[in-house]
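Researcher: Good morning. I'm working through a list of sequences from a screen, and I'd like to move beyond sequence-only analysis. For each chain I'm collecting a predicted structure so we can compare shapes side by side. This is the next one on the list. No need for commentary yet; just the structure.
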Amino acid sequence: MHSTTAIKSLAELRAIPHISVSQLKSFISCPRRYALAYIYGVVPQFRPVALAFGTAWHEAVGFHLTTSTKAKPADRDEVKNIFRERLSIAVEGDRIPVLFDEGDDLGKCIDQGAKMIDVFMDRVELPDRVVGVELPFSLEITDPEFGDVLDAPLIGALDALVINGAVPQVWELKTSKKKWSADQLEYDLQPTAYVRLSTAYQSRTADAIGLV
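Model: Good morning. Structure tokens for this chain:
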């Protein structure tokens, strides 16, 4: 893979023919589900609460990362309010119903997200600099043997790009209940895409990218 030279907004990238890690995972796990979602555009009857939870949590943590300094962190209650508001809107105002796990409800999910924000702000040291959050990227996919470039690029967004010392790092922020296994770290398509992106980045700069 090689990065493209001009990076557009994620909305602009999604408007052109492309592939994404989510699409690839969907096709690998269930080609029929992929076809329904990405070819025929069938609207799902529901979406898991984990998706809405993750989006709201990422937005709240993104606010923390982009407004906090080591001397003056963002107001913790404000970060939690952002999470609460975004999750409530997603659950109560989305045209696609949100399906909760057994025993869960909106209040319990809000409480869990607030606890996770506390853990993140207490234990994850702020980097020296935050370049940005939800940064769009586009990668050309090249045949490793013949060098042919796929017509549709791989697009996505970095959860956060930060600088520690002189080293840029990609932060992939996960909200799943289970810790990633060694196999997931080794073979999952998301970190694989980041490794490819870091390779392309290093081809244009002397810096390296660390994956967190």
